[in-house]
Amino acid sequence: MLLLAISTSLLVLPLSTLHAANTDTTSWTKLANMPTSRGGLDLAVVSDKIYAIGGSNNDSDLDINEMYDPVTDRWSVKTSMPTARTGFATAVHANKIYVIGGSIDDNLTGTVEVYDPVSDTWQTLASMPTSRADLTANVVGDKIYLIGGKIYLNTSPYYTQTNVNQVYDIKTNTWSTNTSMPIALQGHTSTVIDTKIYVIGGSRQSLSGVDTSTSTLQIYDTETGKWSNGQPLIFPSSYGAAVATVGDMAPTKIYYAGGFSIETFTDRTQIYDVEHDFWSEGPKMSSKRAYLGVAVVADIIYAIGGLDGEKWLNLNEELKPASYGKVPPTIEIISPQNKTYKNLQIDYQVNKAVSWVGYSLDNGPNITLTKTPFSIDNIPNGPHSIVLFARDTLGNIGVSKTVYFTIDQAVPTITVITPIQQAYNTADIILTIIVDKPVTQLSYSLNDQPEVTITGNITLPALPDGNHVIIVHAIDELGNLGTSDEIAFTVSTFPTFWVATAIVLIIILLTSGFLVIKHKKISNNLAIEIPENLAE
Please, are residues 6 and 212 in contact by the beta-carbon 8 Å criterion? Predict the structure, then answer.
């Protein structure tokens, strides 16, 4: 392993960057020592077991793989890593440990090997494009981000820091390059919270070959591909190690332990409050050391191995935050959201095991939720609010954000303008309707026939003569179904009136003609019967 001559620039800090000691922690506690003393190792956690892999001691690179069980405080030996090395980075995905890069007998490598703790076997994968050591690895989704590190130069001092940011796609076993880190570093450390990678401290080498520790905090957003800066470390440091508590048993914070700071090895613990962008000092480790590994299990921090400047260490100690076990559950309402619903269905997610979950509707009493999702009926129409509560096994109670929502079970009201209850002398009938609210579906049924979907007012073409009945249905965006009144109407396209009128006229004409003819006959008969004497 290459030991570096490291110096630190003295900085004059403004008052706003000075920090008091953090009183929210206990002290470091020694545990069972690691079987093999070493530094330049890295730690990985799978199923709450800590795997201490590789490293260096007495100028010899190691392939050792030792597992620590925090529950039993015991160590066991596992299958060795195929490639002995130091200064590499590890990442865990799907319960497998990826070991990437590093130094082999002072030669930089891009070798990638993956360890399966279940089968206790190793496999070699596609190598990293840029061979380097003293880099960091973090998993976000199905990708591993390899950032910074030490690369070779062709001239003295023959190595320097890099800002390269290469991404390994676990699913495809391929590599790509992302946005470079603004400040090139080696000997830095990093940890990930949600989708952001926090790159902390590190060193920069001058042309004379002397490394200078830094206090930078560079934050990479994997969703946007952009970098930003956070509050710097209290004390510049390199070759320390960092992990983040996840908020289950202790508040979400980043713990930076040890390293090389102010021209000496350090036992300091620096704690970063992610929410408030603030560093504070925590309790000191039992020994000054750099090139150590740190891990977190159930929000307890473990610091293992390292170099104190004179000897390789097998020291194993833990730090349990003073607020440990006092963190309430985080409960998030999935349903309802700030929307309008026909019926209320409650669904949620919580970040830890809980013994009880309940809700309060409209500031009413707390009611226990027995399952999820959970449906509540008979909620009146109108605006409402809901809050969920969760209690963990230690009695801590978490409260969700209040969600405001609306219940709407009112069916659409449909008014049929035309047709109306009357007779029409046309076969084409116009259907005109008015609906009192937005709807997603309109349809009608004519004479008990199957529903016909429409988008608005239409003409019902070529209806046969006779009686008809039409009903219109409407469904709103919540599924409420409205039905119009039945409208009965008649279609009569045959000219009955005019035919009847013509028949009456014909009858009148025929009757009139008959009377005229009869009158003439009577007149003629009278003329024939006149006596001759009267005729004279």
Answer: yes
